[in-house]
Structures are given as structure tokens and as C-alpha cells.
Amino acid sequence: MKYSELKKLKFGVVPAKRILVFFAVALIAGYVLASTAESAKGEEARTNRLVIHADKGTETISRDIYGHFSEHLGRCIYEGFWVGEDSSIPNTRGIRNDVVEALKKIQIPVLRWPGGCFADEYHWKEGIGPRESRPAMVNTHWGMVKETNAFGTHEFLDLCEQLGCEAYIAGNVGSGTVEEMQDWVEYMTFGGDSEMANLRRANGRDKPWRVKYFGVGNENWGCGGNMTAEYYADLYNRFQTYVRSYSGNRIVKVACGPGSINYHWITVVLERARRNMGAISLHHYVRGSGNWTRKGSATKFDDKEWFALMKNTLTIYPLLENNIEIMDKIDPRGRIDLYVDEWGTWWDAEPGTNPGFLYQQNTLRDAVSCGIFLNAFNKHSRRVKMANIAQTNNVLQAMILTKGEKMILTPTYHVFEMYKVHHDATMLPMDLECADYQFGNEKVPAIDVSASKDKSGKIHITLCNLDPVNPADVACKLPGVEPAKVSGRVLTANDMTAHNTFDKPEVVKPAVFDGFSLSDGMLTVKLPAKSVVVLEIE
Ligand code: AHR
After folding, report:
1. CA–CA distance, 399 with 57 (Å, rounded to integer)
2. How do residues 265-304 score in pLDDT, each as one tens digit?
3. How many Å apart are CA 395 and CA 71, to the nearest integer?
4. Selected catalytic residue, list 147, 166, 219, 305
5. Average pLDDT, whole number, for the chain?
6. At what angle do helices 153-163 and 178-189 cross, to 10 degrees?
7. Is 217 in the pocket of ligand 1 (CB under 6 A)?
8. Cα dihedral sign for 493, 499, 505, 511?
9. Which end of the chain lies in a sparser environment, N or C, as judged by fewer CB atoms within 10 Å?
10. What is residue 354's DSSP assignment?
11. Helices 263-273 & 229-241, crossing angle to 10 degrees?
């Protein structure tokens, strides 16, 4: 999606309005802050003003916003999760233990599988039964490689149980049949006596699984069948009829929504099928200033490319607001949720790797972009109830990179770990007046923030400083709260291209943050340039 298209759209809270709201609050509160800008070696700290309404939160930030997506693509499933029972890499029933442990630490709430584009050419019956007799197929979307079907329904649902997360399965509309989809849901979730439930038992699983979410197709405007919105909406109505809730498993049916800007698609699908869905999806990938043929390097970039990613990442705000506006019109009671079930950065594949495998490194730049996306989802938690970063291991904006028995955590993983304090917490509304991060003739807001209050009453604020050069002073008021204790953590590095490698796995990792002070109820924070910070206020 081109940013020029998004520029025409309104941002949800226009800066002028933010400034007015801020000043009104500041006057009532009776304080005016003096600018504390200071200079150090040409680096200027700008003062930003933040008011967090700790007593006004009404929306819960669904933990599923911190969800993940894993596709049969490159080395995401094979090598990333699945090494097989005979592997020398420590595993439980073929699934690598180190990856499961790492994902449990970020409390992964939900995992979407098997695609992506792969979902609309996946025939689940080829992935059950004795592994040695499962037929192989060609993964035509992703590198034309052989897909052995060694990892299928039983392996995926075992993985979800090992992770302690919900399963989100994407069904095949593009090349599948209604019967095939109906059988799959019955196979997984029916507890009674039926052909499919008995087949599951014969394959070693007596108890039905819990499958909370089921997607009816994926990107059916593109790789999932190149359909029109009208045609898909009608097919959706037909397919979803046979996606049943069996044996106490209440399944949430998810309709395929748009990729970035496609307001016609979401409008038509909602108008024609709104009674039959629990949620509709949205996909949004971002990159630097390149195009889809040359997206740019994940690790070799300059400040122009840094700025381009920050600007492109911020497009998530108008995109969410415009889609939610459409949803509010067609579904005014707010029954249908928005799931951003694919999002993240997309760079050129690492040199020397199969371009069809979408293997990319992950730098501090990806981490700041991730922090902005998650802040945006938090602040739109009224409608956004799930989001799934693409993808968990070794593909696109991954949490985890593996090489044989080695595994490293990416800067993006660390953002998910720092932000887990927001899971199921109450989103706190805020007013922010902030300086610009200017590059050439262009500018974007320099900082991005979200805040929540957890069940024990602790307040968490996550702040991103988009500016790679200038630190930012943030003067933060929390009306009605008397902070007694503040602590923090920061993710940053000296170099904007900093990333973790198999030789140096801890170049980018969170550190204790003490760049704040508390005086007369006012919290003053000095955000380092190019950083993500989480504060805990008790
Ligand atoms: O995540 C990679 C691909 O991006 C997915 O398969 C598809 O849904 C999207 O276009």
C-alpha cells in the first residue's frame, strides 16, 4: 500500500485537537510546564506532554492482540517448530522445546495456522494418520518446495497445548470444498460418535480439542482465489454455515477482510454476511520507501529508510480508524470484532537464502515499528480484539530465528515480552501533545504511547521514541493517581541497525531504565532516541 493513499485519510486524533484537549486539561489541573529542552552533542531533547486518564478506562485490551501467526512457509514450521521425534534437538513429540519455552515466556495467547496463502491450498486430510503414509504436496506459494505434511492437525493442536494458547485455524475456501471444511471442524471438535470423530480417535486422540477461532479463507481477494468481494461474501455465507460449534466448543467464525486499504471489500463483506461472523480480518504489512519488488534490506539502511518505516508504520492508525468507522456504521452494536491477523515488516529476503522463504533479520527498527503497532492496537481495543504478527519463526518479522540447534530472540520478541503487561488490562485513554520527528520536508509525531491498568491496579505505559537522533522528554500527568513507585525497562542500542545474530545473540535486549523522576505527582521521563520503554507505576 502506498503511503500517499493513506495521507489522504484522516488520522483519528488530529494534532490540533490533541493540543486543544491537552491545554484544557492542563488549565483545569492548574499546571503549566516549562520546556526542559536541553542539548547534548547536537542531540536535542524535546518536551512532550502526556496526560493519562487512569480513572477513565472502560475497554479491556484483549490478550489476543498479542497473538502470532505461523504458516507452512520457509522454515517457520519445519525447523522453527517441528524437528521430528528423532531429532537431536531437544523436543517433545517432535516440537522443539527451546522455541516452546521462549514463546511461553511472552505468554503467547493465540496461534494462527496453517496460512496465509498456504491455507487455501491445504487439504487437511493429507496431514493426519501415520506420518510415513501422508502424501507430499508442492508448496506452490512458497518456493515450490516439497511439503511432507509431517506437521498436520494433531501436531499443530499438540503445539497449542504445549504453548497453552488458543488455536486459530484458517480453512480452505480457495481450492477446498464445503464438505472438507465441515469435516475438519467435526474431526477436531466433536466429542460424540461420528465418522470424523472416530477417525480422530483412530489417529490417537480421544478427547476433542478446543478450537476457538476458525477463519473461512485467507486473502480471498488475492492468493486465496482472486475473488470479488461480492463473490467471496456469498461463498463465505455458504461455507460458514457448515462450520459448527460442537460439544461445547463455541467457535468464532472469522471472515476474510481487506489487505491494507480496501474499503469496498470490507463494506461489501460486512453488508452481505454480517449476521454470520464473529470477526473480520485485516492484513497490513509495512516496509521502507521501496516497492514490493525491492523492499529494502532488513539490516543495511540509513536514516532515510528508518524514517520511511516509521512513517509507514503510523499508517496503521488511519487504517484502523477508517475500517472501524465502516464497522460502526454497518454493525452499530459492535458485535463483530476486527482481527488484524497478519501484520509486520516485510523486507527483502536475507542474501543467500531462498527468496520464497521470506527469511529476514530483525533490527531495532523492527522493534520500534512493533511497539507502535501494538500501541495502536491497544488504543483501538474497542474493536480490535486480536492481532497476529507475521510470523513466529524464521519468516518476516519473526520472534525467533533458528539455525540447527541454535535459537536467538529478535528485538521484536523483546517488545512482545515488555508489552505483555497490557494483556487483559484496562486501556487508559490519554492526551498527547508531542514534538515532530522531522526528516527533510516530512514529519511524523516523534513519540507514540499507550497505557493500561492491570487487575492489581498497576499502571503500565509503553512509549516509543521514533526519532533515531533526539531523545525526548515526556512530562506525564496522571490525574487522580499518586504514584508511589515507578520502575522501567528500555530496549535500545547505539546503532539503528543493531540486531542479534547467532554469534552475538544479545546485542539488543531490554535493560533496566531509570531515566525518569517523580515530583509532586508529575512523572518526567527522558526517552532515549530510537527506543521502546515500558514503565510500571504503583
Ligand atoms: O505472511 C506471508 C503472506 O502474506 C501470507 O501467506 C499471506 O496471507 C500474505 O499475503
Report:
1. 30
2. 999 999 999 999 999 999 999 999 888 899 999 999 999 9
3. 9
4. 219
5. 92
6. 50
7. no
8. positive
9. C
10. -
11. 40
